[in-house]
Amino acid sequence: MASSIMAGERLVRAAASASGELGRLPRELRAELEAALGAQAAGRGPLVPFSLLRKLQGALRRAGSSVYLHELLEGSEIYLPEVEKPPRNPELVARLEKIKAKLANEEYKRITRNINCQELNRYGTLADLGKQVRSMKAVVITIFNFIVTVVAAFACTYLGSQYIFTEMAARVLSAVIVASVVGLAELYVMVRTMEGELGGL
Asked: What's the pTM?
């Protein structure tokens, strides 16, 4: 916490001249101020404590001086001493290191908990291959089923529409419309089925 200021050039000059702005100060106060200004802080200018500044302000007010304290303090700075950090407790540091190591070990175990070294090889396990074959088989069957359904709907509509329409264009158009509706319905069922399978995983 700040308890002093680094005296500026104005305050140093005023204290140095005996007949200047601080000439009417009491002798003891002048001596105390000169002693404070004469002592240099390490690598800094002279330090003047706040208590001495309070005395100086009171003396200037009693003497009826035309100089105010804030005018004398032009160019001065508040001195904030560096806070020295206390040394860390070695026992606390050792405990913190143990806790960090324990947390890192738990994190590693959490990340690698689903890895089994006995099942790993370059190409995966037979169980993985079986799952992949089954899923591929299901996809192929679904696509084949979709194609057969759409083609069958087209063929049935085309052949059945000969009793309604005599023109070829009308028969093809009605077959395409029915095959499109059946294909969309089949796609809807496929999407709902896949959503259910993915939700179950």
From this structure: 0.38
